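Wed. Picked up where I left off yesterday with Carnitine palmitoyltransferase 1Ab (liver). The coffee machine is broken again, so keeping this brief.
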Amino acid sequence: MAEAHQAVAFQFTVTPDGIDLQLCHEALRQIYLSGLHSWKKRFIRFKNGVMTGVYPGSPGGFMVVVGAYLSYNKYNQLDPSQAVNSITRALLLSLPLSLHLSLPLAVGGVLVGTGLWVSIIFVMRNVLKCLLSWHGWMYVQHGSVSWSAKLWMVLVKVFSGRKPMLYSFQNSLPRLPVPPVKDTCRRYLESARPLMDDEQYARMEGLAKDFEKNLGPRLQWYLKLKSWWASNYVSDWWEEYIYLRGRGPIMVNSNYYAMDFLYVFPTSVQAARAGNAIHSIMLYRRKLDRAQIKPVPLCSAQWERMFNTTRVPGAETDVLQHVNDSKHIAVFHRGRFYKVWVFYDGRLLLPREIEQQMDRILNDQSEPAPGEAFLAALTAGARTPWANARVTYFSRGKNKQSLDAIEKAAFFVTLDDTQQRYDAGSPVASLTSYAKSLLHGQCFDRWFDKSFNLIIFKNGTMGLNAEHSWADAPIIGHLWEHVLSSDPKMSYTEEGHCCGEPHPNLPGPQRMQWDIPAECQEVIQSSLSVARTLAEDVDSHIIPFSDFGKGLIKKCRTSPDAFIQIALQLAHFRDKGKFCLTYEASMTRLFREGRTETVRSCTNETCAFVRAMLLTCTRGEECLKLLKDAAEKHQSLYRLAMTGMGIDRHLFCLYVVSKYLGEESAFLKEVLSEPWRLSTSQTPLQQVELFDLVRHPEYVSSGGGFGPVADDGYGVSYIIVGENLINFHISSKHSSPETDSHRFGGNIRQAMLDILALFQLDKKSNK
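Structure written out below (tokens, as returned):
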């Protein structure tokens, strides 16, 4: 370790004259500042809890209401002391005569005024809840706003109060409704029809009707009961059974990644880029702790575990471990782990000071301890071996202390030894290498259990790898937008360093200590072998599609998302010669503790359009009409998913209840065993105001991606950036003879161009 630092608060020696204490004032000062910082955070949390608890009211509103009520009483000579009970009056009468004549009036006025204020809050909160339960605004035609939607927006703004905080809307959000079993079965059969022949469909229809008539109502009763009792009838089971109980590797299969700017490279100094990025992330955490992130009327519960969170492996199920505060980060470089404090003198380190710490790590010439270099491979392999190894080898001594330092860190940082970047001369190869490095790296240089990993490459490019169970991609995407937008503002010196000066007395990073026995090293190597096999099988391909973007799509009077989803169906049929069950993620954060729902975007209407496009005898007008029908159907399904009327989460919960009751359902078993051979997701750009793509079109993000869900399927993530760019991230497996990510990418590009050509925009513009 290049820097070693030990601080002791005091020293003492025993002399003939007694004990001589030598106090270290600097250590005591740091203890004082640390305590001050801790109490300040507690006060802020308490204040935020009060503000959220009385929302949409406020302490200022309380003073206004009580003051107005007292003034009204005084003006009209009313006696509100009648509202005070006899016990209170007896206590007041024990006071001196000069007080007990006027004090009951004031106390009674305050008590009645407080009751009036609470009543106003109750009414406003319930009115806001009713407003947020109305989803008619989603059915307004694209490009227009109805009077009802305008009135709704005004009323929501009025009843939201002046300055709502991040979690202010939580108590006003409606609960996720439980759809009728009959509707869910009907919509399921409709979604399954294009994927089955007549015989298969008739059989599934019989299973669905039997379930709807017999077992379904009984399971539904339990779900209804849960929906009345719990905040959300889906989310806790979804987190546990879909994520935490999975025993396979989370690397590739669950974790996902986010990329840096596509065309801009702010600095080539690795430590400097880390300095600005880490500082920006910690500023975001400060805003999060203070609930100062700009809220929208959506559930914000997923933000709570963004920082200081780790997925801890268990023999049968994992658990999410979250601590309220963490003042350090964990850093990995060249096989060594470091604990880096990001606070000093009671304040957050400045970017140049963080760069100084990263430089110390990069300049450290020490070698990893035996087994340390590949230790993180435990988080990349299967969960049960990692759980057993954690209990056996990391539950005591220095191993436990070091593991605690990683798991309780604010987040994990990797100073990567490789260079990744978009290369205009070799775009396909460079982006493929970049994506695979973020998704799995070398399988031992990411701590995949952490809520997220910040990865800084040797040439200054950066990215994220995020664990999925604690939250969905839009949450980490919100953080990443903040980091990317902050980078140009923080700027760098001409030499590429962070602005500012190094700290002359800053204690250095602490090298974590490990004692890993040979038996544990064998487990590590076994996990590494599993992870490498999985990583090498990933076939990744990224397409910066710049032929056109949402600007031209909007001129076609079509939803950009529907346009892309239909293009994916056309591309998939050209790629494989068949349709498949398709997953598109939709959020349900309009409801309390909502996460996601599935849009089954392979519909009868979409299949009809695809078949028409493949027939040379079909006229363009016919294809265009079928396209519009398919787009309208897709929009309808998306609205249903967002408003709690999707089918897949309902069927999933019915299946969970059936397992608890020990009931077997052939219908549910078949539905939940169907593979998603095309899994898709849009990465939304949520804070458009942070990026001025008109003046600075080069500051565009590449978005992010994930691994394939099915062994013989594709994973497709896309981000619509500005008016003229759509980035596609495609993944599949080399081991499948049916898939080829580069081939599929070519089919997507051609499908996008073919669909646009139907609208004949060139001819219309000439006219």
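Quick read: The chain is about 45% helix and 15% strand.
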